[in-house]
Amino acid sequence: MKVMKFGGTSVGSIEGILQVKRIVESVNEPVVVVVSATNTTTDTLISMTEDAHQGKDIQAVFEALRKRHMDIIQAVVPQSKLISTQTEIQALLDELWTLYQNLSEEKNLSQQTKDLIVSYGERISSRILCQVIDKAVYAYAPDFIKTIGSFDKHSPDIDLSTKLIKKHFPKLPAVTLCPGFIASDKDTGLITNLGRGGSDYTASLIAAALQADVLEIWTDVDGFMTADPRVISKSYVIEKLSYVEAMELCNFGAKVIYPPTIYPAYHQNIPIYIKNTFNLHAQGTYISRDKTMSTEPVKGISSINDTALVTMVGLGMVGVIGISKRVFGALANVGISTFFISQAASENTISVGVTNDEADLAVKVISEEFEHELAVGEINSVCAEKNLATIAVVGDNMKRIPGISGKLFGALGRSGINVIAIAQGGSETNISFVIESAVLRKTLNVLHEVFFLSEFQELNIFLIGIGTVGGGLLDQIMLQQPKLQKQNNIKIKVVGVADEFKVLFNRDGITLRNYRELLATEGVDSTPEVILKGVLEMNIFNAVFVDCTASRKIAGLYKELLLHNISVVAANKITASGDYDTYIELKDIARKRGIKFLFETNVGAGLPVINTMNNLVNSGDKILKLEAVLSGTLNFIFNTISADIPLSKAIVMAKEARYSEPDPRIDLSGMDVIRKLVILTREAGYKVEQEDVKKNLFVPQKYFEGTLDDFWNSIHELDAEFELTRKRLEADNKRCRFVATMENGECSVGLQEVDMHHPFYELEGSNNIIMIKTERYYDYPMIIKGYGAGASVTAAGVFADIMSVANIR
Ligand code: ADP
Ligand code: ASP
Ligand code: MG
Predict the structure, then answer these.
(1) Which of 126, 262, 652, 806 sits at 20 to 30 Å (Cα–Cα) from 532?
(2) What are the φ and ψ backbone dihedral angles of 160, each rounded to 5 degrees?
(3) How far apart are the C-alpha atoms of 345 and 549, rounded to whole Å?
(4) Which of 19, 41, 221, 451 to mutate to test the pocket of ligand 1 (most atoms within 8 A of CB)?
(5) Alpha-carbon gap, residue 140 to 127, rounded angstroms
(6) Quick one: which atom of ligand 1 is closest to the CA of 226?
C-alpha cells in the first residue's frame, strides 16, 4: 500500500482537485490519501481569528472563503452528491461562523479556540475530496493521531498514534481519505494539530504505522530543488536525497516537506517521493536510506530568513563547566527552540539562533539565569541582533572533502557578504552560517552559482553611458549573448542602464532590443546619487559597473562601488589618470577584495596594452621606456593634412569621423595623450601626475583659452604655417607624429619628425602604436599597433574587460 499526501495548492482549485482525482483513481493498490486545507485557507482562518478577536469586521473575508469552497464543490462534486455535500459544508461553515461570532467576547484567546478554528480548513477540504474521489472511505484523523501538549505547541504521541492507526485500519479499503494536520489531545480529546505544514507529518505517521511501501508528497513543484525556486530562478530538481540530506534541507526552511515528516519514514525505512501534481512527467525527488550516487559535495542550500542571534560574551565563562547547560535550560524552560549554536573554542562567547519574535524573551531569560555573573562582571553582556538570516549548505558528500568551506566563504568574501556566525557539525553534512537578512537573496545566488556551476554563471552589468561606445557595447552583448551562454556558460544580464537624463534598473534584466525606449518611458531622472543608490540597493551578486561616460561625477562613484565589492570597468579615463593616491587606493581596494578595477580601453582603445604591460611586470620584467603614438585623432589629422586639406579642415574631418573627443581641443592640447601616458607610466610601476609631464605643444595656448566657437573661428590661422612644415617634411621624406615618451618614469609629449626607417613612419589613419622597451625586450622592443580609436573597437575592449571579471570567479 501507499500513502499519498496532496498539499494546499493541489487541492486549492477546480483544476487541481480534478487532477488529484485522476492521479488517485489510477492507483492499483490500497492507498491512504491525506489532504491539506485548500490553498491559503489556513492563513485566512488564522488572520480572521485575530481580526474577529479585535472586533474587526470579517464578514467579507469569510464570505469569500465560503464562496470559494462552494464554487469548487459546484464544479467538482458529482451531481448525485451535490446537494448533500453543499449541505454538509454549509453546516461546517455555519459552525465556524458561530465560533468567530463568539470570539470578541473571549478575553484571552485560548490556544484551544485557535486550534479548533484552524481545524476547519482540513475538515472542509477532506470532506469535499471524499465526495470527489471514487469509492473513497473517510477516516477522521483526530480519532487516531494523538498529541501531547508542550507550551503552545503540540507534538504527536507516536507510540499511541501508531497503535491507534493500526487499530483503525485493520483492513484497508481501496481508497481512504483523511484530513492532514488535525489531531486531538491524548488526554482531553480536544482538537489539536501538528503545526503549520503538518499534513506531511500526518501522512508520514500513517505510512510508518502501516508499513507503507512508499510515502508520496504531491505538491506544486517538480521536486526538492537545489534552492528555493522563488528566490533562485536557476535552481533545479535534485533527483535523489538521503534522509539526512532531506532532513537538513527542510529543517532549514526548504518548505517542500515539514521537517518532522522525515523521521517516521526514515525509522521504518519507507522511501519518500516528492511529486508535482501538475506535472506528472517530472521525475520528482526520491528520498531514501541509500547513499546517493552523486559526487557533488553539496546537494542543496536552504535558509531561514527569520533569525535573531542571541550572544553572550564574557571572559568569566572560560573554562567554567555548565554554562551551556544553563543557557539551553533557560531557553527550554520557556519553550524557545534554537536552531543554530556557535561557540568559539576560547569559550568567551556563545551565540544561539532563535526567531526574531523570541529574541527579547531569550535575552531576558538568559540574563535572569546569569544575573549574578552579569552583576559581578564575569559575563559582560547578553544581547540580541535581529533581522538576520541563517543559511545551510547541505550534502552527505561534503564529509572529509577539504576545501568546501574555503570555496564557500571565499565566494562570500569576494561578493562583499559579511558572515556573522558559523557552525558546522562534526557529521560534516551541514555548514550553517548567519548573515544579514538584507543580503539573503544575494548570498543564495552566489552560493548557488559556486556549487551548481553546471548551469551557467551570471554577470550582472550596470552600464552608465550609452553613447557610441556604450551603445556599441550593448549591441555586441546582444549579439554575443547566445554564444557566450552556450560555449562559455556565461550569461550577461544588463540590470541597469543610464544616460545623462534617465536611469533604469531591473534585477531580472533589461530587454536589450528596445532599451532606449524602455529607458525613456520607464527610467527615472539620472543623477550620480540616484545611480549609486540604485546599484547598491539592488545588492545583486557578480555585479560589474561599466562606465562609458567621460563624467568626473560618475568616476567619483568608483570607490563606494568597489567598497561594496562591485567590480568596475571604466572606459572613462578620469580616475586612472587623475590623482595618483586615489588611483592607487582604488586598485588596492579591488585587490584586497578579490574584485576587478579595469580600464584597458583608456589607452589604445581595444589594443591589449595595459594587460600586456601588467603581464610583463608580473612575470618579473621591468619596463624601462615607452614610446607611443597614442592619439588616434592627432594621427588621423597628420595623415590627412595635404596640399588640399589644411589643418583646420582635417580637424573638422576628425570630429565628423568621431575620432576626436566631442571637444577636439582635448586632443589638440595633448591633454588626452598626457592622460594616456600617465596611465601607462603608472601601470609600468612609476608614480606620476599629469603636471609632471613635459609638454611641447604645436597649437599655441591662446587657441585653448576662449570658447569652443572662438576656437573654430580662429584655428584656420595656423593652416599656412602647417602647410609650410608639411611641404618641408614631404621634401625630406619625413612625417610628423605626436609622440608620448616615458623613460625611467620621466614623461614628455611633443611633435616628432620621423624618417621612413622609424617604426612610427608607417602609421595609417587613426592607428596607435606603443613601443615597450623592457629589460627582456631591450634590443628589440615590443610593439603593439592597430586601431587606437573608434566606437566598435573600444566597445570590444570594454567587453573584454567585462569577460575578464567573469573569469576570476
Ligand atoms: P504544499 O502546499 O504542497 O504543502 P508547500 O508550499 O508546503 O506545498 O511547499 C512547496 C513550496 O516550497 C514550493 O512551491 C516552493 O515555492 C517552496 N520551496 C522552498 N524551498 C524549496 C526547495 N528547495 N525546493 C522546492 N521547493 C521549495
Ligand atoms: N493547512 C496546514 C497549513 O497550512 C497544514 C498543511 O498544509 O500541511 O499549515
Ligand atoms: Mg507543505
Answers:
(1) 806
(2) -65, -45
(3) 52
(4) 221
(5) 10
(6) 23
